[in-house]
Design brief:
With about 290 residues, the chain is mainly alpha-helical. The protein is built from 11 helices and 2 strands. The model has no long low-confidence stretch (mean pLDDT about 85).
Length: about 290
């Protein structure tokens, strides 16, 4: 029948878009939940790492180094930022949750305002990692978005392998279960926390690159993903990496469907609604265990 393939193609396109969005959200949420699971704090400066990732790539491109070098900078600069954030500002107050929230919120605000003053409120476009695209079964796929999707999942998969197969990954799991117990068996708590902050910052920076290429780099690009990441880790379970991945896909699919078929202005609303439902029905989230990363 004429037009039969059009609805099917539209649904497939929405699914593809949802998977791409979910990969982005997972990158942000995993780092956020790892820090909570290890140090038991809410790091609001995680949003600043996203901003630094986007602008690091932008400045690398402006210097003529190319987008691939920019991609490397988008990982390394936020990772270094996160390490320094913990060492200089978070460590002295890490046992005072209110002070941590205030401190990291101030850092996020300062980073935002600095880029707003220096770069203005406009959007800065990043070039694609790979040019071109194709159409498969009526679904438009840009090579650039496909590369970002695959690279994101390589990062997520690599993190799962690292957590479950390496000594440092096992140490991270051990500290998340019991700090005192892990220290008694010889785990260097400081090294574990620093590694966690570095990994979280690198993942957030990669998300910033992802956003910069697909949406543009802006001074306030870290706030909305941070709020959605918070909703995701509540849904998946605070401290659960697997829960963050599942939660990211739940939010990614629902948000894509909502903004496509209902109203584009509802971005982020579905995440908050689902979070409230989960808080009432399952306070620990889908996979959450008190004080455990995995």
């Amino acid at each position: 029948m004429p037009g039969t393939d059009e609805p099917s193609g539209m649904i497939t396109q929405v699914l593809v878009n949802a998977l791409l969005l979910s990969a982005l959200y997972a990158l942000v949420a995993i780092g956020f939940t790892m820090i909570f699971g290890i140090v038991d704090i809410l790091n609001l400066a995680h949003g600043a790492a996203i901003i630094l990732g986007g602008f690091s790539a932008f400045y690398a491109v402006q210097l003529g180094l190319g987008i691939w070098v920019g991609g490397l900078a988008a990982i390394l600069v936020p990772a270094l930022f996160s390490l320094l954030l913990y060492w200089i500002l978070v460590k002295p107050v890490q046992h005072k949750n209110t002070m941590v929230i205030i401190t990291t919120l101030i850092v996020l605000t300062m980073i935002e305002e600095a880029f707003r003053i220096v770069e203005g409120t406009g959007s800065h476009v990043l070039p694609s990692l790979v040019a071109g695209g194709t159409t498969i079964g009526g679904v438009s796929i840009q090579y650039n978005r496909a590369v970002l999707f695959v690279a994101s999942w390589l990062a997520i998969g690599g993190l799962f392998i690292f957590i479950n197969r390496t000594w440092l990954g096992q140490a991270i799991q051990g500290v998340s279960m019991s700090t005192r117990g892990s220290v008694l068996v010889g785990v260097d708590h400081e090294k574990v926390v620093l590694a966690t902050f570095g990994i979280a910052g690198g993942l957030a920076g990669w998300a910033g690159l992802f956003m910069g290429i697909s949406q543009g780099v802006t001074w306030d690009m870290g706030l909305e993903p941070l709020l959605i990441a918070f909703a995701i880790v509540v849904i998946g379970g605070m401290g659960s990496i697997k829960g963050s991945v599942v939660g990211a896909h739940i939010i990614g699919v629902i948000e894509t469907v909502t903004t496509t078929y209902v109203d584009a202005r509802l971005t982020g609303v579905s995440a908050l609604v689902i979070m409230m439902i989960i808080i009432v029905a399952m306070p620990q989230g889908l996979y959450g265990q008190p004080g455990e990363v995995g």
